[in-house]
Amino acid sequence: MPGFKGMAVPGPTNLPFRIRQAMDVALEDHRAPDFPQFTLPLFADLKKVFKTDTGRVFLFPGSGTGGWEAAIANTLSPGDKVLGSVFGQFSLLWVDLCQRFGLDVDAIDVEWGKGVPLDQYRARLEADKRHAIKAVLVTQNETATGVTSDVAGVRRILDDLGHPALLFVDGVSSIASIDFRMDEWGVDVAVAGSQKGFMLPTGLAIVCVSEKALEAGKAARLPRCFFDFRDMVKANDQGYFPYTPAATLLRGLRASVDMLLEEGLENVFARHRRLAGAVRAAVDAWGLRNCAKSPEWFSDTVTAIVVPDGFDAGDVIRIAYSRYELSLGAGLNKVAGKVFRIGHLGWLNELMVLQALGGAELAMRDAGIPFQPGAGVGAAVMHLSQTGEAMRIAAE
Length: 396
Known about the structure:
This protein has helices at 17-23, 36-50, 64-73, 89-100, 118-127, 151-161, 211-216, 229-236, 247-263, 265-286, 313-324, 350-366, 375-395, and strands spanning 6-8, 56-62, 81-86, 104-109, 133-139, 141-142, 147-148, 166-170, 189-193, 203-209, 289-290, 302-306, 326-330, 339-343. By secondary structure, it is of the alpha/beta class. The termini are far apart.
């Protein structure tokens, strides 16, 4: 079929031509004398994306899952107690990883469509008078259900109670797209992946670590080798890596960070919020509902759309791909067959969002889902038109 294929999954995201160009280079010597002239400024500028002055950013060949493992293995010991919550496939997998490492995980089961339960976190931490809980897990953006949680709220609880637990954040589908403040929120380890807000191919686990977490690593007794922060510190201080880095992806990451900083992080967040609003307006106009239970949970990077009873979301996804060359995100685990997901993050503008919504309408109509054709696209157009005018007036 002629024309471009549509990509509306929540990762990997669309790849900007500028980043493709940056990676279209001859392979290079990663131990060359001038390599640090490239890497050291990159490390420094990545800290701006995480909004940290004191943290360190480590770049591992891998995905977000590797970042989770790095966070756990470098800071904890066998049998340590961890507080977490499960409200989607990725928060579930992070808990599973901790359990496989032999940690004692208190995993609060939450209805899928909601996020981190602050009241229950407070109760668990307040009851922990002996500070047995060594780490608290927060999935800032649950990609499976389109739910965003309050990281700052968890930090407030820890501070209110004077609890010393480390704060770990899965920011794979939020960092570089949704507001994240490493230092202000007192985050100790934040995990991101290259294939979402950073607009790159999959292949880099981007991990930002606080001084407190690095200090905790001195007493940690979980096995670590490939993901050892200590080895990275020694090599990174000189501008190198303890093993062969994904240098081609690093060249793309340099272009990605440049694009983010040139647009301005606050503008990046505002753009994502505006485009997400268009998708949510379309869902309402279709007469469907968001998997996220209420606006407090709505994600600005991905919307999971619940299909009516008696319909299979898998049919919508299959038809969109096979007939219209549009990739939509599938429902995972508990929401498999119940939702399809529209990713709206990374390198994205109004026209790309409208393309995804139009393709979703074609697929839903072919699948027999009842709605007024054009209603969702029309509602999105109205939202984008109104918010665009407001932004122009504010800029003037």
